[in-house]
């Protein structure tokens, strides 16, 4: 059995008296894609930020290919090595790109930082090609690009480092439906071409169906259900997973029933019927 | 549900031109919301859906030149006096925006915010507060919310406050611009349930602006699909969902990821919507359309009804081919 790409065990994190992440464990294998879904405040984003190193855990550990990923990366060489393990794509490409740097320049900078001995030019072309950006878009500043193009730049920048794990935090949530489909297809292509593993944080069960093969459902900081994406979506076991699925608008949708179901779930949780 | 003889909102041949653009940002929009009817206006960023809804309040971007008519209960907002517009905005028409935190003053209590419109219009404080408590109750919140600041309640609760605020003036038309986009799916369902219930109780006409076609189809009586400043298609929600007659609608439906679908690749629409700095000769969707022919690039199609269903209009030269050949594949 090969070593898992990413192994997260027993993560805990509290903010004040809120237990944001409560004993979260999961495994991501090479070339696999794991989704974490949940509502606002479920702890999915905090979990992702701990994996990336933007947040530290109170307890538990993150291993990449069997090696513990330290909570604090000290020193330039270690920080660079840490960045090559895990890269992140954020929700809002307006906020995550430098407004004064073109796509080509941001890739050149990233490549120079991580691979100073290599000629960046052919690799820049390869990356732009991989994410479907033309020469004109490559020279444009972020404000001259559309939302979809900007997210392509953010993905190219993350891939430039050749990371083992790509964490995508609501990476397609801000995009229009037609553009979102293009980016989801792009992510599927990249996964076919590279051994990269995806950790996909989203509230959108449709997106999860599309790009992940394993799924964790989180609520109040805890994992309430886990399994192959197709199984979890076809036959959800936990009432919260069922509630999430029923909440997705579909023909014959009854939002009034969902409001009641949420009440019932909250009541049963308070009485300790589900934990 | 068919529109009543006097619709609460009737937009006819609305054209809006902004400075520094090569073509009108709204190009001949026709749209009707009947009394008590829920109508969804669906489109992607830049399609003009928000601009269209805002004209019902007489809100135009700076430097905009408008033509056509936007009648609210028969009165045209484009030619209305400033005083009449003010009265319209405090009474007949109300709006709920996407981000409740951006629409509320964080330094003022929710009670203050709810009652200020009525107080400014001359209602006594006690009466305004009583109305606020009544509406908070209608949206599922108790009177304790009156003394709270926006930062003390969750996003879902704040959006309920916004809906209560919108109903304070007892409007005949409620404009909701992506009111659930910032919420998670469960909160979204709750807010929608609430809007549906309130519409039934108060008989308010609802124009629901969204980018989510599945949501639009699930909640509305009728749907308008907008593309590049034009109405591409309109139909009763169920009809549109089951049998789209415009290739853009069909492509949007096909590119929507759904939990019940097979995993894997989506049928994405190639390319991007046309830039406002370019002119459009024929159909705005022709560049991205798998059915496009020379005719589409020369002449803009008029919205024409389905012979079998007069309420189903599509602006497409090749709607027969779409129906015959089914959903266009990944282009």
TrEMBL record, chain A:
Entry annotated with the keyword DNA repair: no
UniProt keywords, alphabetically: ATP-binding, Nucleotide-binding, Transport
Pfam families documented for this protein: ABC_tran, oligo_HPY
Residue span(s) of domain ABC transporter: 6-245
Keyword Mitochondrion (UniProt): no
GO MF term (any one): ATP hydrolysis activity
BP terms from Gene Ontology: peptide transport; transmembrane transport
Record SMART domains: AAA
Residues in coiled coil: none
InterPro entries tied to this protein: AAA+_ATPase (IPR003593), ABC_transp_ATP-bind (IPR050319), ABC_transporter-like_ATP-bd (IPR003439), ABC_transporter-like_CS (IPR017871), Oligopep_ABC_C (IPR013563), P-loop_NTPase (IPR027417)
Family per record: Belongs to the ABC transporter superfamily.
Protein name per the record: ABC transporter domain-containing protein
Natural source organism: Streptomyces finlayi
Phylogenetic lineage: Bacteria, Bacillati, Actinomycetota, Actinomycetes, Kitasatosporales
From TrEMBL, chain B:
Recorded topology in the membrane: Peripheral membrane protein
GO function terms (MF aspect): ATP binding; ATP hydrolysis activity
Compartmental location: Cell membrane
ABC transporter domain location: 9-253
Keyword Membrane on entry: yes
SUPFAM superfamilies: P-loop containing nucleoside triphosphate hydrolases (SSF52540)
GO process annotations (BP): peptide transport
Keywords from the named record: ATP-binding, Cell membrane, Membrane, Nucleotide-binding, Transport
Highest taxon, organism lineage: Bacteria
Record Pfam families: ABC_tran (PF00005), oligo_HPY (PF08352)
GO CC annotations on file: plasma membrane
Keyword Plastid: no
InterPro entries cross-referenced by the UniProt entry: AAA+_ATPase (IPR003593), ABC_Ni/Peptide_Import (IPR050388), ABC_transporter-like_ATP-bd (IPR003439), ABC_transporter-like_CS (IPR017871), Oligopep_ABC_C (IPR013563), P-loop_NTPase (IPR027417)
Family: Belongs to the ABC transporter superfamily.
Designated name of the protein: ABC transporter ATP-binding protein
